[in-house]
Amino acid sequence: RSNILLCSFDAFATHSTKENMYQKMYTTLFNAITDALRDLADNDPDAAASKLILAQQQAEEIFISAGNAA
What we know:
By secondary structure, the chain is mostly helical. Helix content is 66%, strand content 0%. It contains two helices and no strands. The protein is elongated and about 40 Å long.
């Protein structure tokens, strides 16, 4: 195993809906990256890729749901 720091980030209180949206997106992506790094350390690149793709889709849905669609 590598010496990659693996941790989770919890969402925190926000001041606006826009900040809340970005915090949700950040948390979603941060946690997926953390999980993907763990999968890569365990020599499972397919699981890592799947987690990153899902997180990308979830972050996009958060963005669109907040009324930010192009």
